[in-house]
Specification:
about 140 residues, globular, alpha+beta, single chain
Length: about 140
């Protein structure tokens, strides 16, 4: 009866249970916690990592409404001469990672290369997550 958004996020970050996977060539694809108000006049708020490994990521709040446009940071790049559309296919490769994913990968590399700076970065990310949760509570 007292499960909060933070409770669900901590479950999705739990490596010991096997829910959060980051090894053996397979990673959690991403995680999501949704807040679905009973009042239909209030918007649903979805917290998504948009990146693998929720234990080293941040849940970002998204509210989907009519006419909304995707943020460019989460849109995969497109290529005029896309190797997937040329015949023969895939003679070359392109980096299809969106900006958020590329930055997440850089953060993971920092966490592994410099654990102290990595802890500070993760702390800053978690503070942003707390601000997102607070903003959601104020919205609802």
């Amino acid at each position: 009866g007292h499960i909060t958004e933070e409770t669900l996020m901590s479950i999705l970050r739990d490596k010991a249970s096997g829910i959060c996977v980051d090894s053996a060539g397979f990673r959690t694809a991403g995680s999501m916690v949704s807040v679905l108000p009973r009042d239909p006049a209030l918007p649903c708020v979805h917290f998504l990592t948009g990146t693998p490994d929720p234990s080293r990521s941040v849940f970002k709040p998204f509210v989907f409404v009519a006419g909304i446009k995707a943020a460019p940071q989460v849109r995969s790049p497109s290529f005029p001469q896309d190797p997937a559309r040329q015949i023969p296919r895939f003679r070359s490769s392109v980096d299809r990672r969106h900006e958020l994913y590329r930055r997440h990968q850089a953060a993971l590399e920092l966490m592994e290369r410099d654990p102290e700076r990595g802890r500070r970065l993760l702390g800053a990310l978690q503070e942003l997550e707390r601000q997102g949760l607070q903003g959601m509570r104020e919205l609802l």
